[in-house]
Structures are given as structure tokens and as C-alpha cells.
Write a structure and sequence with these properties.
Largest sheet: 6 strands, mixed
CATH architecture of the largest domain: Alpha-Beta Complex
Distance between the termini: 46 Å
Order of helices and strands: EEHEEHHHHEEHEEHHHEHHHHH
Radius of gyration: 21 Å
Shape: globular
CATH superfamily of the largest domain: 2-enoyl-CoA Hydratase, Chain A, domain 1
Helix content: 40-55%
Number of helices: 14
Length: 311
């Protein structure tokens, strides 16, 4: 039986997933596929509202994607232009959405493209998941590990002699799992270019100052704080969480008029969910009781924040 690289335990409505690939804490294709299964579990289980990712290595979240796998694939692959590969990726992506498509691709020359498409799909599924995802960076992380953290909704990092980096430039290629795209959307094109071209490590304090991580905390309380944060946000209605994430990440990249329609569609589709209808009924009942708007009533708002909804 293949050893699991994503070890999952449940804390209330929070799943804690420990990334475990000793001795070097390298990301592998097997780990990516296990993360894909974790996303599906988090989305389908009504008793799961959030996921926390952390590493089992004493000083690393993830080092990077295993370069041996990249090198092995590159040696076997023909030299093709980026435009031809883009066309191939479109075909591969379409094939993966057909039942049995992955089995066919695994026996074809497109197997390398399939692995990239699967990694892209898993990271994007995290971004649009109905659960809240928090990366608890317990140490150094670079390359694919950093790109995984960028796909999460929040990043907490342990304070200490740790570093974040996109070192791919030193291997002769750019970040390939969303690094340039997510950095550009998070920090702007200029800073994304600098991080990707320079490839130099960034300390926890620097990462916090530039907005790469949301909180820097002592290592001994990192996981506890990440779980508490995930538990609080994981009480929000899941359909609304997914709608917010999609509207910001996908709609926010569209021209304004298209983005407004995207947001409107997410809003309209979630107002009719059972959780939303229940919260709306509770809000109106409380309005009648208070004789004023509940969202501006301190005690009612505090209760809603704690419960994740008006009840």
C-alpha cells in the first residue's frame, strides 16, 4: 500500500492536513492528487467548514516540487514552443473532463501535460472551495509549496529563521504552478516580477510587510492560531464562502461589467439556498424584535460573528 503524504485529522468542523514526505519535505504528484481528494471531501461534507495545511518537517512547510520528477519528464519530452504547448494543455484539460480521460492520457505522450493540468486544477479547486483554507507555514517553503500556499485563503507563518521563495529562475524556468499569476493578482505585476526574477528568500517579517502572509506568530502557537482562525471562518455558510471566493478570484480578473455580472450571478444563486433563507428569516425576525437593523446592533452582530450567520 502506498504511504499517504497528506495526513488528515478532524478538529470539530476543521480538517488539519499535515504534508508528510520525509526526509526533505518535497511535493510530489501523489501529494497533489491526495490534496485533490481532500478538496472534494471538504466541499462535500456539510460538517467541514475549513481546512488547515501544515508540514510535518521540523523546519519546513514544503521545500518545493521534486525536481527529479521535473528533470525526468523534461529529458523525455520533445522541445516544443510555448504556443504549441498551450494548445496541448487545452486538449489535455478537455480530455480530463471526459470519464476515463485520465486513464487514456496516462498511456499517451500527453502524460506530462496531464500532470500539470491536474496540479493546476487542484490548486484552483482550493481557491474556489466552499471551505476556508489556511496555510500554516511552519518553516521554509519554496516553489510548488509556496504556490500551494498562495492558493489558500489565508497564510500564517511561524516567526523564526525561515524563508519563502520562488527559486525556479535558478533552474532555468519560471514558476509553473500559478506563482507568477497569483503573485501578480496579490501584489501587482511589479512585485511579482521582482520575486520571480530575483528568486531570493523572503523572511517572515518581510513577507508580512508586503502582504504575502497574513500573520506571523511564534512557532509553538502557529497551528493553534491557524485552527482557531479556520474554525471561526469555517462557520460561515459554505455556499456563501464559495461564492465570495469565486467572485473575488475569478470575477475580479474580468473587465468591470463582466465582473459585476459574475458577482450578481453568485449573489442571486446563493440567496435561494436553505442556509441563506434561514438567515434572512432570522434577520427579519430580529429586526421586528429590535425595531432597528440587527447588523448595527452590537450584541446581535457579535453573536452573528461568533456563529458565522444570523440565527
Amino acid at each position: 500500500m502506498t504511504k499517504k503524504t497528506v495526513l488528515v485529522e478532524q478538529h470539530g468542523h476543521v480538517l488539519v492536513a499535515r504534508l508528510d514526505n520525509p526526509p526533505s519535505a518535497l511535493m510530489t504528484r501523489e501529494m497533489v492528487l491526495e490534496l485533490g481528494a481532500l478538496v472534494r471531501r471538504a466541499d462535500r461534507d456539510p460538517h467541514v467548514g475549513a481546512v488547515v495545511l501544515t508540514g510535518t518537517h521540523s523546519s519546513r512547510f514544503l521545500a518545493h516540487f521534486d525536481v527529479r520528477l521535473i528533470y525526468g519528464g523534461a529529458k523525455r519530452s520533445p522541445k516544443l514552443s510555448a504556443s504549441i504547448i498551450r494548445a496541448g494543455l487545452k486538449v489535455t484539460g478537455a480530455a480530463l473532463r471526459i470519464p476515463g480521460g485520465s486513464a487514456v492520457l496516462a498511456r499517451s505522450p500527453l502524460v506530462g501535460l496531464m500532470a500539470w493540468e491536474q496540479m493546476k486544477d487542484v490548486f484552483h479547486a482550493i481557491e474556489t472551495s466552499s471551505a476556508v483554507w489556511v496555510a500554516a507555514l511552519n518553516g521554509d517553503t519554496g516553489g510548488g509549496g509556496f504556490e500551494l500556499a498562495l492558493a489558500c485563503d489565508y497564510r500564517f507563518m511561524a516567526n523564526g529563521p525561515f524563508r519563502i521563495s520562488q527559486p525556479e529562475i535558478f533552474l532555468g524556468f519560471p514558476p509553473g504552478s500559478g506563482g507568477t499569476q497569483r503573485l501578480a493578482r496579490l501584489l501587482g505585476g511589479r512585485r511579482a516580477l521582482q520575486i520571480s526574477l530575483e528568486g531570493t528568500p523572503i523572511s517572515p517579517t518581510q513577507a508580512h510587510e508586503m502582504g504575502l502572509v497574513d500573520r506571523v506568530v511564534p512557532p509553538e502557537v502557529l497551528l493553534q492560531e491557524a485552527i482557531e482562525h479556520a474554525a471561526r471562518l469555517g462557520r460561515r455558510p459554505k455556499a456563501a464562502v464559495r461564492a465570495v471566493k469565486r467572485a473575488v478570484r475569478e470575477g475580479g480578473s474580468l473587465p468591470l461589467e463582466e465582473g459585476l455580472r459574475f458577482e450578481g450571478a453568485e449573489w442571486l444563486s446563493t440567496t435561494t439556498t436553505p442556509e441563506s433563507l434561514e438567515a434572512q428569516r432570522a434577520y427579519l425576525a430580529r429586526t421586528k424584535q429590535l425595531g432597528d437593523v440587527p447588523s448595527l446592533h452590537p450584541e446581535t452582530l457579535e453573536e452573528a460573528v461568533a456563529r458565522g450567520r444570523f440565527t
